[in-house]
Every structure is written in structure tokens, then in C-alpha cells.
Amino acid sequence: MNVPVSASPAQVGMWITERMGRAGTAYRMPLLVTFEGHLDAPRLIEACEALADRHPVLATAIREHDGVPVEVPGLPPSIDVSLSGDLDELVREEIRRPFDVEAGPLVRFRLVRVAPARHVLIIMAHHLVFDGESKDVLLRDLAALYNGDPISPPSGTYADHAATERARMERLLVDAREFWRERWREPGEVLLPGLSCPPGGTARSRGAAQGAVHTFRVPGPLADGPAGAAKVSRFELLLASVHALLYAYGNEKPVCAVDMSTRTPEARDHIGLFVNELPVASAPSPRATVAELAALLHAELRLMYRFRPVPLARAVRGLRPRTALAPISLSYRRRGPEPRFAGLRTAVDWAVFNGSVRSVLHIQAVDGPEGLDVIMQYDPRAVAGVTQIAKDLTAIMNNPDSVIGDILTGDRPTFSGDSLAPSSAVHTGASGPADEIRAIWREVLGLDEIGDDEDLFDLGGHSLTITQIIARMRKRLGIEVSLDVFFDTPTIAGVLRSIEDAASEEPVGVDGGR
């Protein structure tokens, strides 16, 4: 690529979070493949190398160009070999090892020899170039390359599909704003068993936290709704069960952030980021059944699917950057077939935990022939009742004809944490670079007048607007302001105050003396 290619809408939001330093390991996506039998290691390494030729996005990076994140050539995926070692510790090491988003590589492979006839391939991908369906595509193509099977090149590249998605987003933007104007409401706090406020924040953290996991399986296929109800999918019944459970816990208008695929049929064979997180809200009737709630969500989702390519931050005025869209989030995917590597038995761990959680509770569901494998990722500082939540959710999913108002749970919690009071805007008089900064704000936002205390997000700004303002301040004024300043005080007055505070600080010696 000779000319910088704009990042996809999904990549922009994720890049912003990474740059703010609030993502932790939340965007690192591990995948483990175990091989039993005589593995031809050199051939597997060659297959890993060939993946980058087939999927150029694996050899890209994301950098800032004039305030806009762009896709640029990066280092190709790295491939390491470990002849021995503690597998669990090696996996933890790969999860902890950071990615250089601006230089790459954004995908790493490590082949571990556990025993003479047992090897494990650790695949670590950054979410910027990878999503849940990418796991299926990668393993399918890796097996074909290892086996020497014929494989047709995919049509176009991820950059091509990202350009198409940006165009779709622009076409839908006006209608999406109208759609969300009537639907969006701030989720607020959530009621869960054993919920308490984590140290230093509310129950909805602004950044990723070290997390824990609780796993369970709902065996067999989930039942459909009762006779006469609209046909609902297994995902919709799962989503309705989560909403019904939240209602039973005392949340009268539950909101759940859902990862929605933006893939088109043309992008099915591509590795990349094709996901947009959107909120799904409901107001369950206590007289309705869970299956009937699923039918209502089915209808709402059909309306929402049209606007999947539009990030919520572009459609909703005043929406501030955040690591988690809502305290409760859900992702669902159908597990792909196990890859077949010639002469080998394989087993895939599709849902390795990366150690971080972006919300209070994230429910990751992987649907396979044995049933629904559920991985509940949660902040252990905030949620103590995860076992009860799993028990209650399983009971609801197994009884979709249950009347919502009759659902009994092990606990009806009350929130014990105190919300942080919002900080008030600080008014700073015009001095120094104030006039130039105001001019940059007016230029980027396309407004003639902006008051010192007017909120950037209320004026129609969003994450990408912030990076453009920062880039122009850096280029024209030689001033660097962090993204956190805009997150915490998104006003001209707040930015000016942060600049004044930075200028007034005296240097401190290494021994703490002045």
C-alpha cells in the first residue's frame, strides 16, 4: 500500500480505546490448537507464513495520519517455536506481551512441543485485525495450506471491504441518527447478585479491568418459542433470557450491549474486524413469557440490523468514549467445524480468556453441536454472585415458556456502590493559545461559534473528532493534549485548564525533591 488507507469504522473506535490506555489485554484474542500425532512442524510454519500472503490484513498496522487512524504496512506475523515449557505459562506470557499497534505484527504464532506426538499452536491476534468469525477462516485456511489442498484467493482485501463499509455507514448515517434518537438511553448502573462498587469507580468501569471467568454448558439445542409465537433464533432466545434474568434481578428496563457482525456475503472468507457493538434495550412485561420477549426482540433486531455498519458514537450526539457500552454485554457465535489437518487429530480451544473484562459482566456464548458453551467474564471486584447468575440463566434458558413475572432467582440484589458525581466544567479565560484552540474546534466541528463550556459531544463531536483536534493542535501549536483530557473535560475550558496545569508544574527530581 503506497497511500494510507483509512481504518474501518470499527477499527477507529478500538484504536481510540487503545490509545487512551484503557484496553488492557481486552483486545487480545488467543486461540489454541492441539495436534496429536506426527506433526510436520516446518510445513505448519510455512502454512502460517502463507496466511499473511492470503490475508494481507495480518501484516498491517494502524497509525495516525493527520489526526485520522489509517491502515499501513506493518511487520508480518511472527512465528516462534518452543521445544518445551509450561504451556499455561506460555499462554499467559503471550497474553501479557503487548502489541505494537503502529508497527505490528498484530498477529503472533507460537508452536509448543508438549510431547513427541503432541504439539500446541498458540495464536495471538489483536482485535484490530481479527474477530470471532476470523477464527474459523484462519483455521480453515491454515489446514488447507498445511494439507496442500487447492484454495482460491479471496475476493479483494480487508481494506477494500472496509472502504465499502465506510460508504455504507455514510449512506445510513442520517437514518441511523433518527433511529437511535428514539431508542438510545444511558444504561446506568445494573443490579446483580453480590454487586458492589469496585475501588475507584462505579460499577460500569471506564476502562478494562482484570477479570475472572465462570464457564458452564447448556446441553442440547435451545427450545424454540411456544406454538403461535414468531420463530426466533437460538441467539434471540439467549438474549431474551438475559433480559428476563436482569428484569428478575430488579432491572425494569434492561440494556445489553451486543456484538453484531457487519460482514457481507463478499467478506465471508476474509480475516478482519467486522463487528460493531450496539445496545439492545427492552421493557419486559411481567405477564409475558421468555419466548414472547424473544419474539419482540426478534422484531427489534430486524430493524436494528439495517444500521449495523454505523457505530453508535456516530449516530448519538453526546455519547462519550467508553470501553464498555453497557455494564452487561453479550457475544454469540456458532462454532465452526473442527479443522482437519492431514494425519493429525486436532482439538481447538475457541474461547481462551485474555484476562481482561471491559464491562461488569460479559457473556460469551459459543454454539456447537453439544450445546451452548457459555463463558461468563466478569470483574471479581464488582460481582461476587456469578455462580448464582449462571444457575439462574441456565434455568431460564431451559424453560422459555416461563412467565417473566413468575421467575424466581436466588437473589434480588441491591446496588451497594456509590456513583461518582460528575465533575463540573471549569471556565478558563482566553489566554495564550486559547484563540487558536477555539479556531481549531470551530474548524473541525464546522461551527461558527462555540462557548468555552459547551460539551464537544453535545456539539456532535465523537472519538475521531478528538484525534483530529489533537493532531491540529500538535501540528500548529506544538501542544500535546492526551485523549483522557477530552474524555474527562470535553470543553474548550477543560482543555485550556489542562494546558495551564501542565505548564505550571515544576520539574521534580528523581529523589522527589523540588
From TrEMBL:
Its cofactor is pantetheine 4'-phosphate. The keyword Phosphoprotein applies. Pfam families: Condensation, PP-binding. PROSITE patterns: CARRIER (PS50075), PHOSPHOPANTETHEINE (PS00012). Residues 428-503 form the Carrier domain. Keywords: Phosphopantetheine, Phosphoprotein. The keyword Phosphoprotein applies. PANTHER family: FATTY ACID SYNTHASE (PTHR45527:SF1), NONRIBOSOMAL PEPTIDE SYNTHETASE (PTHR45527). This is Condensation domain-containing protein. It comes from Microtetraspora fusca.
